[in-house]
Amino acid sequence: MSPTIRRTLEDRLKQVVQETFGVPLEVALEVPPNPDLGDFAAPIGFKLARPLKRPPQEILQELAPRVREALAPWVESVEIQRGYLNLRLSDQALQDQLTQLLADFEAWLPRVAEGRRMLIEFVSANPTGPLNVANARAASVGDTLVRVGRSLGAPVEAEYYVNDGGGQIRALEESIAWHLGERETPPQDGYLGAYLKHYAEKVRDLPYGQRARWVAEAILRDQMAELQAFGVTFDHIVYETEFHDPAEEPRDLNPHIGRRFAYTQQVLEAFRRLKVLREMEGALYLDTTVRGDDKPRVLVRSDGRPTYFLYDLAYHLYKFDRGYELLVDLWGPDHLGHVKRMKIALDLLGEGLGRPEVSGENFLVLIVQQVTLLRGGKRVRMSKRKGEYYTLHDLVQEVGVDAARFFFLLRSISTPLDFDLDLARKLSSENPVYYVQYVHARIHSLMAYAAEKGVQGSAQPSDLALLTTPEERHLLRLLSGFGDLLLDVHERHEPHRLPYALMQLAEGFHAFYQKHRIVGEDLARTRARLALARAVQRVIRHGLDLMGVRAPEKM
RNA sequence: GCCCCCGUAGCUCAAGUGGAUAGAGCAUCGGAUUUCUAAUCCGAGGGUUGCAGGUUCGAGUCCUGCCGGGGGCGCCA
Asked: Nearest CA to the C1' of B19 belongs to which residue?
């Protein structure tokens, strides 16, 4: 429940500025480029200069003594440097963090204050073939966001949407017939990959028209198994056909069909009420241009079949209806053009329904950029329909779950990722993931050694006061900031910060270990250093777990 | 043609909501271990942040234009 030191300091600083100058100021603490400058830097001199019409230096000189007093329990020095107020944490505060971390790790982690119920939808691959590496990247990112959120006590759930309707299912049906030799020419837009033959053989005895549904279910099961092996699970699975008209298909063939058709009708009614529906050439359009879109978007085709867009709106209304307050969707770059119209449509939907919570504001799309596979320095072209594949399964076989997940998380979401397969295979012994895992294993072995030497008893506060070398202080500082890091990952939806932070912590520990003897003559110092090592191990283990990466005890 | 993403060290990428001397890994070169895991550590070289302007105390970050790469622009999903 403890707020982090950084948040505490920011709140206090804000308060002091308000009391001293009577102006509000959002204070965002930064970390100075050089540790000699302190642990935190508040760039408030520049920011106050304008509203107060006074030079930064003068402002800070007036502020510094008050800050020093207000932050006394946590901060041992406050210095003015250029336009910054540089803060140095007290040894006591850092040692207290260590004590609390070890006493009750879960309680030491910060909690997300306003618990908006969040639903993250990701992967949501078509049930027409195996998962590819783009799905793998989305799975890594989405799952880690879910885990981080939960670790901070935020109500976050994971959902998978199955596009089990529309043209691709018809194409699947045709493709199955082709694989069974019932038609000579391969269907246009068909799925010609060898994998499908295996599924097709199992439905040979089913009549044409009923096979695709069975195969889609089987593929979905296999996808889920593959994801589970990748460490990724979902709380909910929702099918597109739930939003279809139940008259479309007999329910004994499709148990999902039409269960939530009411949502589809509700969407159309809301738009009708709002008078934003347009009929042109026999098709029904949503006039998104009233909110700045380029052109109206088709909801119902001229032959009466609804589009994916309409079903997607019904689906997202269903999400809001279940009480989620923030909807996060992870989409591929090919869906980029849909973001704007979707937000507009949700705004209109909320207005039409008179429900302000249904709105584009509460709908966040994260575009997870594409993955390009390289082999021998050349692009590996992939096409589901042509049957050219490199699957999630292949990836796990080749580089393993740990390396794959770590590697995917190492890039920010918005960066296209070149995945060099030759390099990835080579990386198996050079990948940074092993650098981090090694710290965990090393500390495990260290603990065993200490036990063997008969070192007993946990560190007392007086022991921890001995942690004063630069390497020890650096580690204490990194540990104390771990909660802030998780908050950043959660609030900004930037999971790539996590592996970087763990690499930094690992680097700090390796350097510390190299330079200082941990189990030694001085028992008090030994206890203190073991406590520090145990805390590092705990944080590393937690961080790796959030990434779905194992924390081995031996390497 | 319009919209979006990207352009940072030889390579792959970071850079905490506009902050101090732009940082890591890999690669290259040079060192370190009789004692707790060398899958480690220490050090060196390597940069006009694609180009040109602008905004301001301050720009890799924001704005405009251009160049290059990728993606999208369907009564497909």
From this structure: A43
Distance of C1' in B58 from CA in A47, Å: 11
Q: Could you give all domains of chain A from N- to C-terminal order, each with its CATH number?
A: 5-89 (3.30.1360.70), 432-546 (1.10.730.10)
Q: How many CB atoms lie within 10 A of CB A538?
A: 19
Q: How far is CA A345 from CA A242, A330, A359, A442, in A?
A: 20, 18, 8, 54
Query: DSSP code of A410?
Result: T
* Bases of chain B within 7 A of a CB of the protein: 2-7, 12-17, 19-27, 35-42, 57-58, 69-77
Q: How many CB atoms lie under 10 A from the CB of residue A75?
A: 22
Tokens of A267: 């969407």
Residue corresponding to tokens 């269907």: A187
Q: How far is the CA of A416 from the C1' of B14 (A)?
A: 14
| Closest residue (CA to C1') to nucleotide B16 in the complex | A30
A485 CA from B14 C1′ (Å):
15
Residues near A344 by Cβ (< 8 Å), separated by ≥ 6? Answer: A288, A291, A292, A293, A360
CA atoms within 13 A on the CB side of A539: 35
Distance CA A399, CA A405 (A): 10
Q: What is the mean pLDDT of each run of 10 residues along chain A (555 residues)?
A: 85 94 90 89 91 91 95 94 92 95 95 87 93 92 96 96 90 94 88 91 94 96 97 97 94 94 97 95 93 90 94 97 95 87 94 95 90 74 63 89 91 84 70 91 95 85 92 95 94 93 94 94 94 97 96 92
